[in-house]
Amino acid sequence: MKTVVNPVKSTWSELLARPTMDLESIEGLVRPVMESVQSRGDSALREFTEKFDGVSLSDLQVTTEEISQAISQVDDDLKAAISIAKKNIETFHQAQKDDFVKVETMPGVNCFRKSVGIDKVGLYIPGGTAPLFSTVLMLAVPAKIAGSRELVLCTPPDKSGNVHPAILYTAQLVGIEKIFKVGGAQAVAAMTFGTETIPQVYKIFGPGNQYVTAAKQLAMKYGVAIDMPAGPSEVAVYADESAVPAFVAADLLSQAEHGVDSQVVLVASSEEIVNEVKAEVADQLKTLPRAEFAEKALSNSIAIVLSDEDQAIDLLNEYGAEHLILSVKKPWGVANRIVNAGSVFLGNYTPESAGDYASGTNHTLPTNGYAKMYSGVSLDSFVKKITYQEITPQGLSVLGPVVETMAAAEELEAHKNAVTLRLNEINNV
Amino acid sequence: MKTVVNPVKSTWSELLARPTMDLESIEGLVRPVMESVQSRGDSALREFTEKFDGVSLSDLQVTTEEISQAISQVDDDLKAAISIAKKNIETFHQAQKDDFVKVETMPGVNCFRKSVGIDKVGLYIPGGTAPLFSTVLMLAVPAKIAGSRELVLCTPPDKSGNVHPAILYTAQLVGIEKIFKVGGAQAVAAMTFGTETIPQVYKIFGPGNQYVTAAKQLAMKYGVAIDMPAGPSEVAVYADESAVPAFVAADLLSQAEHGVDSQVVLVASSEEIVNEVKAEVADQLKTLPRAEFAEKALSNSIAIVLSDEDQAIDLLNEYGAEHLILSVKKPWGVANRIVNAGSVFLGNYTPESAGDYASGTNHTLPTNGYAKMYSGVSLDSFVKKITYQEITPQGLSVLGPVVETMAAAEELEAHKNAVTLRLNEINNV
Q1: Which residues in chain A are closer than 8 Å to B287, comparing Cβ atoms?
Q2: Strand locations in A92-240 (E)
Q3: Which of A269, A354, B237, B275 is in Cβ range 3.0-4.6 Å of B325 for a Cys bridge?
Q4: What tens digit of pLDDT does each residue of A124-159 get?
C-alpha cells in the first residue's frame, strides 16, 4: 500500500484511477453463448453447464425436494441471523415507498404519479467460493415489496450439480419459486430471451464475474434492463485522530478479501494514522484465510494523507466510493458534504460488513466511480413510475391556448389541432 | 391503417411488434466520430460541424449577445406560454421530492437515505425541422430542482451557424449558462469526454436521431450514464363508445406527424368506432402541413377491435405504450389496471399534447416497450440516492453477532473480524 502525502489536486485523478476493464474482448466470447441460448434454449443451457460448470444436468430447475433438503441443512443459528437481516432490510426498504403524487398544476389540470412494480425480474447469484445468500435478500426483499410478480433466480451448480443450501434456504424464505441451476453468460441469456423452462424477464439484477457483466451489457441491446454497470468492489476510509487503527485496518481488509481486483483507499489526516493502520493491517493479515487475495488487492491500493479537511472531502467526492467509511470525530459534518458515494458508514462502530449483511441498507451499490450518477439498488430499482393526467373542460380552456401557442412555435400543427378541436367543442364553435 | 377484429392472444405480440432498430451498423459510423472528439477535442468538433451541419464555426459557445438577440426575437405570446408551462412542470416535479428517509431498524442501528443531485448533466436538444424548446423545459427544470450544479446544453446550429431563438430563450430562462452549437454524435462525444470548451458530464439526456442514439449507447461504455434507451415515439388510444372520433383522430395524428417511424395503435371496443375514427383521420389529414410524415406513419399502424375490456387491458399492458390515451367511460377503472405505460391520459379532454408541452408531466418517456421496466424522466433521473448508517456500540452489540454468523457462512472471515474486533472492545475483552 503506497502512501502519498498531501498530493496536489492536479494529481488526484491519476492517483485515484481505477483499473480499466476491457469488456470488448470478453463480449466476443459471450456473444455466441447468448446467441446459442437464444436459438436453442434449454439444450444450449445444458451444453454450457456441462462445459463451464463441469456437470451434466437433466433438470435445470431446483426441485421442492432439494429445497426441503436445504432447509434441513442450514444451521438454526444461521437461520436466525438471516431472519433478522431480512426483517431489517424489509424495514428500510418499506420506508422507501413513494407516496402517490397528486398535483393540480392549474385549476382542472390534474397530474399524478404512481409506482408500479416491474412485473418480471431476474436475479443472478454467483457461485464460486463464497455462497452469496446475502445477495438473495438484498435483491428479492425489495422486489417483493415493489410488487414484482415473477421472480426468477439463476445460480450456477457446483460440480455435483447442487446449489449451496444457504442460497436455496434464503430463496424459499423470501418466496422465490423459480430457481434454476444455470450460471454465467448462459444464465443471463436465458433470462433475456426465455427458454422452454426459464422465463424471460424485463430486468436483470445481481453481481457476477466479467462474463456475467459482459452478458448483462449485451442483454441491454436485446431490450432488457439491468441494475447497474458493474466493477470491482471498493471502499474508501476517511480517518482522523479519533479513528481506531485496528478497526480501520479490519475494514480495509474486509474489502480487500473480496478479490485481487478490490480497491481500497485510505484517506487520513496525518501520516501517523496511516502508519498505525498499516501496522495493524500487517498484523491482522496473518490470521486471514483469504490473505492471498487481500494482500494482492492491498498492493494496488493507496493511502493518501491530506491534512486539510476541505481537500479530503473534495478528493472523496472526486473518487465517488462505493463504500465510504467516515472514522472521524464529527462524521455527519463530513457526510453532509459528500455528494458522490454509494453508501456511507459513520463513526467507529459502523463497519461496512454491517451494511453488507444485516443493518437494512442495500449492499448492491455503484462501483468504479458510478456513484457520481447511479444510486445503489433500492425499492426504486424494482418499480416504474407511471404519470397520469386528467384535464377537465374548464382546465383545458385555460391550458389549451398555452399548448396551441407552443405547438405552433414548434411547427407541430397536429399537436395544436388536438387541442383546438376540443376547445371548439367546449366553446360550441 | 390495418384493422384486426378480436385477434386471439397468441397473435398479439406479432400484431404489436415494433420495427427493429439496427444500431450495430450505425455504431460503426459513430465510433470514429467519438474517438476523434476524444483525441482532438474542439478541432474535431469544428470539422464535424462543417461536414454534417454545413457551417464553419470559430466559436462553439453561444454568446451573451446571441442570447440577448434571442430574447428580443421571441414573441410575447410564446414567452407567456413558456412561462406557464415552466411553472406547471416545476410544480409537478417539485412534488416528486423524496423525503429524507430515517429508520432505526434495531435499537442503535440507524439507516438513512438522501437524494443528492447529479453534479454535471448534459442536455441534448435536436435541431432539424421542429425547434424542441419544450424539451429544454422538460430536462432543465427537474435538473435545477434536483440541484445539479453544472448544466451543459448542446444543440446543432443551422446552416447560418445559428440556434433557434426559442431554444436559446428557454435555455436562459431556466438558467443554463453553457450552451454549445454542436449536434449529432459529436455533441454526445464532447459531453462524454469533455473538450477545451465543452465540459465533461456524468449523465446525458435528450432525444435525437439514430446517430445520437447510437452515440449515447456508446457513451455508456465510456462510463457516462444516459436517461434511457430511445426508440420512435408512439401512442396507444383505447376508445369505447364514449370517445369522440374527431378527438381520437386528432390524437393519433399528433403522434403520427412526428415522423414516418412513429407508432400509432388504436384499440377500440367496436369496429364502428374504428371506422368513424378512420374517416376523421382522412378528413383531418388534408389540412396538415406534415401530412406526408403522418400518412406514412399511419400506413404502418394498426387498429385492433377488442370487444372484451379485460382483453383490451391485457393487450395494452403487453404493448406498454409510451403514451396511452384512455378515451373511455370510466378511465380510472382502466388506468388502475395498467401496469406498463409511460404516461396515461384520461378522458376526452386530455390530449397527449397537453402533456407534451405544458400540463406539468414530463414528455421524455420510455418508448419501444421499455415502459415495462423504465420510468420516464422525472426528478429521480437527476439524483442519486445515497444511503447512510450510524450504529451505536449498543446497536452493534445486538446486530454484530448476526453479521458474524452470516459472514462466517459466506466464508468471508475479514468481514466477520471487522465486527469481532469492535465487539471485543465494547465488551472489554
Answers
A1: 413, 417
A2: 101-106, 109-117, 120-124, 150-154, 178-180, 203-205, 225-226, 234-239
A3: B237
A4: 999 876 789 999 999 999 999 999 999 999 999 999
Q: Please say if the pLDDT value at position A405 is more than 80.
A: yes
Q: What is the pLDDT of residues B76-92, one digit of tens each?
A: 999 999 999 999 999 99
Interchain proximity B350–A81, CB inside 8 Å: no
Q: Where in chain B is the domain with CATH 1.20.5.1300?
A: 392-426
B14 tagged catalytic: no
Percent of chain B residues past pLDDT 90, beyond the cut: 91
Alpha-carbon distances of B307 from B239, B241, B249, B311, rounded to whole Å:
11, 11, 20, 8
Q: What's the confidence (pLDDT) of residue B129?
A: 67
**What is the average pLDDT value for chain A, to the nearest integer?**
96
Residues annotated within a binding site of A? 124, 186, 209, 233, 255, 258, 323, 356, 410, 415
Look at residue A324 and tell me whether its pLDDT is greater than 80: yes
From residue A137, how far is each of A180, A229, A398, B112, B340 by CA, in Å?
17, 20, 50, 19, 26
Nearest to B352 among A91, A405, A418 (CB): A418
Best mutation target among B25, B332, B388 (most A Cβ atoms within 10 Å) is: B388
pLDDT digits (tens, 9 = 90+) for B279-338: 999 999 999 988 888 899 899 899 999 999 999 999 999 999 999 999 999 999 999 999
Average pLDDT estimate for B355-376? 97
Q: Tell me, rounded to whole angstroms, the distance of Cα A29 from its chain centroid.
A: 24
**Least CB–CB distance from B390: residue in A244, A347, A425:** A347
The CATH number fitting domain B23-100+118-226, selected from 2.40.30.200, 3.40.50.1980, 1.10.10.10, 3.50.50.60: 3.40.50.1980
Q: Report, as residue numbers or ranges, the catalytic residues of A.
A: 322-323
Rounded Cα distance, A343 and A321, in Å: 8
| CATH of A392-426 among 3.40.50.970, 1.20.5.1300, 2.40.40.20, 2.60.34.30 | 1.20.5.1300
